[in-house]
Amino acid sequence: MAIIPKSFIESVVSIGNRNDNGTISWIGTGFFVIRKLKEDKTLVRPFLVTNRHIVNNLNKMVLMMKEKGVEKLKEIDTPIFDNNKKPIFVLHPSMPESIDIAVLPLNGQFIRENNLEFPNFDIDEQAMSSSELMGNGVDEGSLVHMLGFPMGLVEESGLPICRLGCVARISVNQITSNHTILVDIQNFPGNSGSPIIYRPEIVSIKGTKSLNKCVLMGVVHSYIPYRENLISTQTKRIVEIREENSGIALMHPVEYIRDIIDTILPNG
After folding, report:
1. How sure is the predictor about 38, in pLDDT bands with cuts at 50, 70 and 90?
2. Into how many domains does the chain fold?
3. CATH assignment at residue 199
4. Within 13 A of 126's CA, how many CA atoms are on the CB side?
5. What is the pLDDT of residues 230-256, one digit of tens each?
6. Which terminus of the chain faces fewer neighbouring Cβ atoms within 10 Å, N or C?
7. Residues 41-58: tens digit of each pLDDT
8. How many of the other CB atoms lie within 10 Å of CB of 163?
9. If we measure between CA atoms, which residue out of 174, 258, 158 comes closest to residue 224?
């Protein structure tokens, strides 16, 4: 039974850092989105969405992409700085330090000339903002999927690791103060930049709404750690701090991705 559209799964790519010796360290996740041009809906602009902290730590970005008709993936070196050493990626226009999202405009001509596949999310038609989600019945307990490449689990198929979780908290106060939705899902190093996808529901309690389509909800950027202090019985001082993954992930909702794309390619 197909729950997630194949194009959603295939739009997720592993992001690597090419080291000085030519080797690649796989450090994060990104996904492709498009926006249709207002003046001609048959034309689109392609983008890569990931986290700001991913691109800030990159030397040279490498994406794993598939050539049409070829199963084996290609390593695509992708510039993140222009000839003047200025970043090509774009951050949030009003909250660049608070919103851990980076959007990289991609070269559509390069994609066509190299015959590369480009599955993607339509950021306007296949995604919903937090207000749109809540207005359509998404609340605490709604099921979600996370697609990404944790712990360097990258292989030639290019398929991301899919994990199932649920919305832990989605509230106007949480989004206004911290710009996040809380998701109960296990994410690990490498999952930064992973998209969160809503799992469609066709059944609901009487008097409530249900959203019966799969949509992009946002992008994961971190998790809430659980910390425990180990205290010496003699000195009564903290001698060690242990930290574990609490299983609560932080996700920036779609509206912040749209905000960034609006600065690159206005929709109105």
Report:
1. confident
2. 1
3. 2.40.10.120
4. 19
5. 787 788 788 777 778 888 999 999 999
6. N
7. 778 999 999 999 999 988
8. 18
9. 174
Task: Annotate 114-176 with DSSP letters as a single string.
Answer: TTB----EETTTSB--HHHHHHTT--TT-EEEEEE-GGG---TT-PPEEEEEEEEE--HHHHH
C-alpha to C-alpha distances, 123 to 29, 36, 38, 83, 130, nearest whole angstrom: 18, 9, 13, 29, 14
**Tally of CB atoms within 10 A around 189:** 12
Tracing tokens 């307990």 back to the chain, one arrives at 141
Residue with token string 């697609």: 147
| pTM (predicted TM-score) | 0.91
Quick check: is 131 in a domain? yes
User: For the chain, what's the residue count?
Assistant: 268
DSSP code per residue over 77-115: EE--B-TTS-B-SB--SS-TTTS--EEEE--HHHHHHTT
CB 185 within 8 A of CB 249: yes
HEC per residue, 4-39: CCHHHHHCEEEEEEECCCCCEEEEEEEEEEEEECCC
